[in-house]
Amino acid sequence: MDLSLTPQETKFRDGLRAWLQANVPSDWESGRNEDEMLERFNFLRVWQKKVYEAGWAGISWPKEYGGRGATLMEQVIFVEEMARAGAPPLANTLGLSLVGPTIINVGTDAQKKRYLQKILNADEIWCQGFSEPNAGSDLAGVRTEARLDGDHYIINGQKVWNSYGWVADWCALVTRSDPQSQKHDGLTYILVDMKSPGVDVRPLRQMTGESEFCELFFHNVRVPVENVLGKVGQGWKVALGTLAHERATLGSGMQIVFKRQFDRLVELSRSVTRNGRPASEDPVIRQKLAQSYAEIEIMRLNQMRAITRLSQSGLPGPEGSIQKIFWSELNQRFQQIATEVLGPYAQLTAGNGHAIDDGQWAYSYLRTRGNTIEAGTSEIQRNIVGHFVLGLPKSY
Ligand SMILES: Cc1cc2nc3c(=O)[nH]c(=O)nc-3n(C[C@H](O)[C@H](O)[C@H](O)COP(=O)(O)OP(=O)(O)OC[C@H]3O[C@@H](n4cnc5c(N)ncnc54)[C@H](O)[C@@H]3O)c2cc1C
What is the residue with the minimal CA distance to atom 43 of ligand 1? Predict the structure, then answer.
């Protein structure tokens, strides 16, 4: 892995840096009240459109579908510069990191043309319908049915823990198209228009106070056969590709958030007092902050290593699971340290007049609990590393 930038990469970085300097909105971080969710989301959507129009969205996506056609290394630089500039994240998280790359890998030309550009410019927001009440870690248990009826599939069933379901225009859905099939056979990956009659979205309230994810119910939803992504009955293979992208790349977006929060916490540690003096002078706090800094650096370097490998092989491998374990557990440790630095202030939620950063810290602490569950639990990631990286026998 070569960490020095080529002249082309330096030029790319400088151009992006200048654009961000001129365009990143100041003071954009708003509170997390339930009633602010839509407003916040719409703000991030407008921001993504602006990034797209300036030519910075989909850095490594093909040019003919609205991307920049640049290298994965330039994609890494993009993430780093966004973090450095304190820029807001892009709204269409799942479209950009999961669905788009899956369509690029296995979609038909017509599907690429139909969907990719609208993912990049945030015209169409995506969600991911994989998990069901009895199929989370083990997607082999998927029961949502897709029955062929002429040139349509009729979908019936239920999904759960569906992030962005409340704002999504489209859903990447894993269904069982062969009712006789068992386990991973007979699954089909279908792109479903969330405005189709028979789709019912019910938000679920989380301990953060938000309703970020939803239950989805499908009642006789008609979906044209051309919306099948990959081959009929090969949905497991397609879904594995999506999951590998999720594990390998979701962390790169997280890095922006972690770095910004870390810098802010260091700043706060100088003004918040602990035992009568600034927290930054407390030897234990200093140790913990330094440890967090080291871990975020490790995450950054591992991300570069993963991207280097991805640029050589074209597809993310099981190593993505190592990164997923690392960033999710790192974030839980980091948010715990934040509560120690901020003391009682860390418990004040949005809307409380005394809350630091409008309750962002209480929100983040609670939200990190889901990090070791979403995109596959830590136990499942360790199983993948044990089996596919270390070659140990299967655990189940
Ligand atoms: C914030 C958040 C966002 C999410 N967003 C989405 C989304 O957008 N779309 C979507 O489809 N899903 C989403 N999910 C769901 C997520 O993918 C599942 O919750 C996850 O895969 C675990 O499935 P489960 O909840 O059914 O738990 P289960 O699979 O029932 O697991 C329960 C426990 O058993 C352990 N376990 C299970 N199998 C094994 C094994 N073989 N070996 C060792 N331990 C095991 C698990 O680690 C876990 O601790 C989201 C979840 C969260 C928390």
Answer: 379
